[in-house]
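Request:
You are asked to prepare a plain-text protein record giving the amino acid sequence and the backbone structure tokens, at your earliest convenience.
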Amino acid sequence: MMIEVLIEKLARIPQFYMTNLNHAKDKIAFYWDITGRIELYLMEIETKKHTQISHGEVPRALRSGFVWTRDDKSIIFAKDKDGNEQHDLYRLDIESSKVTQLTNTPNFQEHVVDTSPNGKFLLYTSTKKGQVNLFFYDFETKEDKALTNMPTPVRGGKYDPTGSFIVFGYNDTQDFRNLDIWTMDSDGSNQKKLLSLKDGSRETVSDISRDGKILAITSDFGGTSRAGVYDLESKELKLFGEGAYEEYSGKFTGDGKYLVCLQNFKATIKPIIYNCKTGEKRVLEFPSGIAAGTQVTSGDRYLILSLNTSTNPSSLLKYDLIEDNYEYLIPVQLGDIETDFFVEDEYVEYESIDGLTIGAIVYKPKNIEPGVKLPALVEVHGGPTRQYFRNFAMFSQIMVNEGFVIIKPNFRGSTGYGRAFTDMNIKDIGGGDLEDITAGAEYLKTLDYVDPTRIGIFGGSYGGYMTFIGTVKKLDFWKAGAASQGITNWLKLYEESMPHFKYYLHMLLGKPEENEELWKDRSSYYFAENLKCPLLIIHGINDPRCPISQARIFRDRLLELGWKEGNIGEKTFEYQELGDIGHGGFTDQEFRIRSFKTILDFFKRRL
């Protein structure tokens, strides 16, 4: 199959996102790109009948979720302009498909959070006060009021079933890693800390029982994330499991007897259910892969969740909790591509420079002939507080089909391996984590089918940052690098960042006025003269997280150093600015196609 045709076919495999049950728990809404672009759809659980309810009004690249109104007649969603993440809020009437704009704040970022049980108010976060705070919007009077005025970011928010109070996340300590559970009355009064296990731990709420008495929480108090319940009357906290795995609380069953959770272990996720009284765990008979979703339908009979694996894109399933079997609501849709076309991934572990064990996912072509030496790539994830999973990766499948080997490391700073591991790159970004990345390159060299002289590095966001810093500080590892939406100068990034991004940077690097030398030492801009290999730089003009200036200053520095823009020859780099996107846009099929073609073409020429 010609590569252009393959890219088109893979990039256009329909993907769905953000499945969300209504309040009656008999219908589910979700974003889906089966028409070629993202739209909102509604499905009846019993009949599987689905209906498209938006027609071009929703964003192409998703950076925010949506909520149902309490009468289940409308959906409230957020939309920005060309990826700038300055979302406004909109109401979509399901029956008429009419869309009404609720907020008009083009210079601020807003996200929907919840609707009040009486159906009168919308709870949302906004940067209208500078920092992220909670606001409410009155559907009838159009009144818009701030509920909090906090100096550090407010996280999420949820009404209790009576509508009398709201729980939310907040940190009032000097430890930037910390996150506590707070509560306030529904009018914003009586704000107080509800649950804090220790300074530095993170406690979050995922659900409130129907009677309003029990919170479903997740805490990493003991070093790994554990799900549990907190009784608002007795103040009793019960954490489930033994802490051997990363586990996250989800939704209660309607009767409040059980809590559906997700377990994360070695880059796979599976659903589990805890008995809220006894703590007994039930592991579902579910296929191995990446499960997502913890919502249970009316009557507590069915669990709605998605599944994907390295060889199968996402499917939507209805799991029968009584019969322990499942059926597809949306099966995998591959068109004329056969499942056996795709390669299985492999989970591996290797040692970093200091003996730390790093988990990684490897993709390699099928039927490699003896003696063949293939080019290889280290792909670096964003975040850095994220991780790679053993899920379907379109671009990895494309690259493998073209004869590349890929390793995707979960370096220190990644989630999924315990709190201590996630915190290891605090005030050391571009340090130990870079050593983990280069150790991944060394691992590739141990594979007899990899050409050790043809190894490249690429990634987006933090992966773009690691590509920049890796190519100027680990000079002998890379023959080529491709950085998308990357960071090159932390100090300049700080100057241009929104307040909640600055808060995150304080956690990663400390305050710039106190740690200026570290901020400079971990910025590739100050080491650009060391670059030896060809570099592809891709950046969206509307990016608010990693502004376009990050790419432009590095480009200008290379030009000062005698580099030239070009796709062949010594001391040449390649540069693209994209005017219609922000911080990436992989939920948009057209962006996927364009990005896949650009990066593949670069590495085929440069490796």
Summary: The two ends are 22 Å apart (CA to CA). Residues 589-606 form the longest helix (18 residues).
